[in-house]
Write a structure and sequence with these properties.
Layout lengths: L1 H4 L9 E2 L4 E8 L4 E12 L4 E12 L4 E9 L5 E6 L5 E7 L10 E7 L3 E7 L4 E5 L8 E2 L5 E8 L3 E3 L12 H10 E6 L17 E7 L5 E5 L4 E8 L5 E8 L15 E7 L8 H9 L5 E2 L3 E4 L3 E2 L6 E7 L6 E6 L10 E6 L2 E6 L27 E3 L2 E8 L2 E8 L8 E5 L11 E3 L2 E2 L13 E8 L4 E8 L2 E10 L6 E8 L4 E2 L7 H13 L1 E7 L9 E7 L9 E5 L13 H10 L2 E6 L8 H5 L5 H17 L2
Parallel strand pairs: 9-20, 13-14, 16-21, 40-41
Antiparallel strand pairs: 1-37, 2-3, 3-4, 4-5, 6-7, 7-8, 8-9, 10-12, 11-12, 12-15, 15-16, 17-18, 18-19, 19-22, 23-24, 24-25, 25-26, 27-28, 28-29, 29-30, 30-32, 31-36, 33-34, 34-35, 35-36, 38-39, 39-41
Length: 627
C-alpha cells in the first residue's frame, strides 16, 4: 500500500491519454462517397482544459476503402455547439461573443447555408441568456425540412439590485425611475438565493426553448411556469410541432447529475405556420451582409400542453424521419437514481409501451437473457429508417448495440442484438446478422466488449460506432445495412491511438515501445459469479492481469459507486496503466444491484447496500486469492 501511495512522486513524464469518441456526423457526398466527421475530446495538459478534435474520414462504399482527411481542432474561442442539418447542407453554430461593459452573457448564432456560406449572424443577448448545450437539459434540433432549428437557453433576467440600490432617491427624476423599473427587478434582492439543479448544472434554474426560422429569422420563445424546467426540444419534420421535456422543480432541484430519474413529462407546442411568408422578405435576408448582426422580433409563448399525464417519468423524445411517430423513454412505476426504462411509441392513435421493463430473466446476460433497456437517454438521431431505430444499452457489464422495429404498436416490438467484436487492421469487410433477443443465444467471449453509438443516417442506412475493451482503446467502425436490414457489413475506419506524448516533455522512444509491448501482454476476462444466498441474481466482475508477472501480483479491487451504476467492459486508461507498468491485477466488481441485470436485481439493493457490496466483494476476493 505504501508503494501505491508513493506512485505520484515517481512520475517523470506526462502523457495525454486519448479520450473516447463522442459523436459522428454522416454526410453523403454522392452515391458512393460518404464523409464522416468524428468528434473526440482531448485533454490539454498545458492549459488544463478540454479540447474538441474533429477527424474527417472519406468512405468509398464501392471500393470498400476509407481515407482519413486529417484532424481539426473545433475549440474555437467561444464556440459552444455546432450542428449540421440532416442533409449536411446547412449548419448552425452557437457561440459566446465578447462581453460588453456590463459583463452580461452575449450569445451569438451563425447560420451557414450551402455548407460554407455564412448567411446570418444574430445577437441573442436581448432575448435570452447563455446557451444550454449539455447533453441533458440542452439539445439543438433541426426540423426535417431544414427550415427551423430549436435550442435551449437561460431565461433573460432583469438586472437585480440590492436594497440600498433600489431605495427611492429623491434626487432622481421620474423619467430615470421609469427606465430603472423597466430594466431592473427591484422586487428581488441581488443576493437572494435561487435554487438550481446542482453541480454540472449550476445556474440552470429558469430555462426557455427557442425556435428559430433560419429563412425569415422569425423566433418563438417558449416560456414555462416556475414549477417546471424545460429541455431536450425536438421538432417534427415539417417544423409545425415542438415537443420538449419538462422536469418538476418539486420537491427539490439539487443533485440532478447523479440522481437524474426525476418526475418529468413531455409537452407539446403547435408552432406558427410560416409557409406563407413573403418571398421578398426571405430574399431581403439572403441579399443582406451576412456578417452584419440581424435584428429579430421574438414571439413569446406559454401555450404548451402535457401529452404524458399518466407517466411518472417521460423524457428523451425523438421524431421518426417522416414525423409520423415519436419514441421516448418512460416509467410508470418505482424509479431510483439510475434504473431500467421502458420504450414508448406515440402515434396519432395514442401512446403504447413497445418495450417494457424486464423484472426477471431465466437466463443471465451472458447466457443471452435480455435484461431490458438500460440507458439514460436515446441518441440524438436514432433512426436508420422510418420504422427502425438503434440505441446502445447495458447488457450485464457490456454495452451492446440494439435495433428496434417499431412498426408494431404494442409490446411485441422486435428487438435485435448486433454481435459486434474488435477487429484487426488486416480484417476484410466482415458480414454480420442481427440476433433476435427472443432466441436467447449466448454471447461469445469476443462479444464481451462494449459498444458506443456515435451516429447513424436514415438516408443511407449507415451506423457509426466505437468498440473498446478494458485493455483496448476505442476502434471506430461503420456498419452498412442491407435494404431489408437483416444483415450488415462492418468496416474498420479508425483506431484510437493508445497515447500521445506531451509536446512540452521529451519522451524516449524506447519507453513508448516498452509500454506498447506491455499493453499487448495484458489479459482480461469477464467473470460471471453465482450468488451464494440462494437467489438467482447473477453478478459479474472484470479482471485484468499481466501474464509477464512471475510472482502473484497484488490485487486492486474497485467497486463502483452510485450505488445504481455499473462498470462497463470499456477502456479506462488510469487503472490499465497501473496493471501495465506496476504489475497490479485490477478487479472491477459489479455487485448485485448494479444496473444492467434486470429490475429485480437492482431493487434488491435498497436496505441491503452495504451488506451486498461488502459480502460479495469479500467473497470474490477470497476466491481470487485461492486461485
Amino acid at each position: 500500500m505504501s508503494e501505491f501511495n508513493n506512485l505520484a512522486v515517481e512520475f517523470s513524464e506526462v502523457w495525454s491519454w486519448s479520450s473516447n469518441f463522442t459523436k459522428a456526423e454522416i454526410q453523403e457526398v454522392d452515391d458512393n462517397l460518404t464523409q464522416i466527421n468524428l468528434t473526440r475530446g482531448q485533454k490539454d495538459a498545458t492549459k488544463d482544459a478540454g479540447n474538441s478534435i474533429e477527424s474527417s474520414i472519406l468512405l468509398n462504399s464501392s471500393s470498400q476503402s476509407s481515407v482519413k482527411l486529417g484532424n481539426l481542432s473545433t475549440n474555437h474561442d467561444g464556440t459552444m455547439k455546432s450542428i449540421a442539418s440532416p442533409s449536411g447542407n446547412s449548419r448552425v453554430i452557437l457561440w459566446e461573443g465578447e462581453k460588453d461593459a456590463s459583463k452580461d452573457s452575449n450569445p451569438m448564432i451563425e447560420i451557414y447555408r450551402k455548407k460554407n456560406e455564412c448567411r446570418s449572424r444574430l445577437s441573442m443577448k436581448d432575448y435570452h441568456g447563455k446557451f444550454v448545450v449539455d447533453d441533458w437539459f440542452g439539445g439543438v434540433s433541426w426540423s426535417g425540412d431544414e427550415r427551423k432549428v430549436t435550442y435551449v437557453a437561460l431565461k433573460k433576467s432583469l438586472k437585480k439590485s440590492t436594497f440600498f440600490e433600489s431605495f427611492f432617491d429623491k434626487n432622481e427624476s421620474s423619467t430615470k425611475m421609469e427606465e430603472k423599473e423597466e430594466n431592473e427587478d427591484t422586487s428581488i434582492n441581488k443576493y437572494e438565493y435561487v435554487e438550481d439543479w446542482g453541480e454540472t448544472f449550476v445556474g440552470y434554474s429558469n430555462l426557455v426553448v427557442v425556435v428559430l426560422d433560419v429563412l425569415t429569422l422569425d423566433m418563438e420563445l417558449i416560456e414555462v411556469s416556475d414549477c417546471l424546467t424545460c429541455g431536450q426540444p425536438q421538432l417534427s419534420y415539417d417544423g409545425k410541432t415542438l415537443i420538449f421535456t419538462g422536469w418538476s422543480a418539486s420537491p427539490r432541484k439539487l443533485g440532478m447529475v447523479y440522481c437524474f430519474n426525476r418526475p418529468c413529462s413531455l409537452f407539446r407546442v403547435i408552432l406558427d405556420d410560416n409557409e406563407n411568408s413573403k418571398e421578398n422578405e426571405v430574399a431581403e435576408q439572403e441579399e443582406g451582409d451576412p456578417f452584419s448582426i440581424k435584428s429579430i422580433s421574438p414571439n413569446k409563448r406559454s401555450d404548451y400542453s402535457c401529452i404524458t399525464p399518466n407517466l411518472r417519468l417521460a423524457r428523451s423524445p425523438r421524431f421518426s424521419p417522416d414525423g409520423s411517430k415519436v419514441v421516448f423513454l418512460g416509467s410508470d412505476g418505482f424509479d431510483c437514481h439510475n434504473g431500467p426504462m421502458s420504450l414508448y411509441l406515440m402515434t396519432n392513435t395514442g401512446i403504447s409501451k413497445i418495450i417494457p421493463v424486464v423484472d426477471e430473466s431465466d437466463l443471465s446476460p451472458g447466457q443471452g437473457g435480455f435484461p431490458g433497456i438500460w440507458t439514460s437517454s436515446l441518441p440524438s438521431n436514432p433512426f436508420i429508417s422510418p420504422s427502425t431505430l438503434v440505441l446502445t444499452s447495458m447488457w450485464g457489464s457490456r454495452s451492446v448495440l440494439l435495433s428496434v422495429d417499431i412498426s408494431s404498436e404494442d409490446e411485441n416490438a422486435q428487438v435485435f442484438r448486433w454481435p459486434l467484436t474488435l477487429k484487426d487492421k488486416d480484417d476484410k469487410l466482415a458480414t454480420i446478422q442481427p440476433i433476435p433477443i427472443t432466441s436467447n443465444q449466448p454471447l461469445s467471449k469476443e462479444e464481451s466488449v462494449s459498444v458506443s453509438l456515435l451516429g447513424c443516417s436514415s438516408s443511407s442506412s449507415k451506423i457509426v460506432f466505437s468498440i473498446s475493451s478494458p485493455t483496448s482503446p476505442p476502434q471506430v467502425h461503420c456498419l452498412f445495412l442491407s435494404n431489408n436490414e437483416d444483415e450488415g457489413w462492418i468496416q474498420l475506419l479508425l483506431q484510437s491511438p493508445l497515447m500521445t506524448a506531451s509536446s512540452q516533455i521529451p519522451l524516449p522512444i524506447r519507453d513508448v515501445v516498452g509500454v506498447m509491448r506491455q499493453f499487448e501482454e495484458l489479459r482480461w476476462e469477464l467473470i460471471e459469479n453465482d450468488p451464494e444466498d440462494g437467489s438467482n441474481h447473477i453478478f459479474e466482475s472484470i479482471l485484468i492481469t499481466s501474464p509477464s508477472s512471475l510472482t502473484p501480483s497484488p490485487l486492486l479491487v474497485i467497486p463502483h459507486g452510485g450505488p445504481h451504476s455499473c462498470y462497463p467492459t470499456c477502456f479506462f486508461a488510469p487503472y490499465v496503466w497501473l496493471s501495465c507498468l506496476r504489475g497490479y491485477s485490477i478487479l472491477y466488481v459489479n455487485y448485485r444491484g448494479s444496473t444492467g441485470f434486470c429490475a429485480n436485481s437492482l431493487f434488491s439493493l435498497p436496505g441491503h447496500c452495504g451488506f451486498q457490496v461488502i459480502v460479495l466483494i469479500g467473497s470474490f476476493f477470497y476466491k481470487y486469492t485461492c486461485m
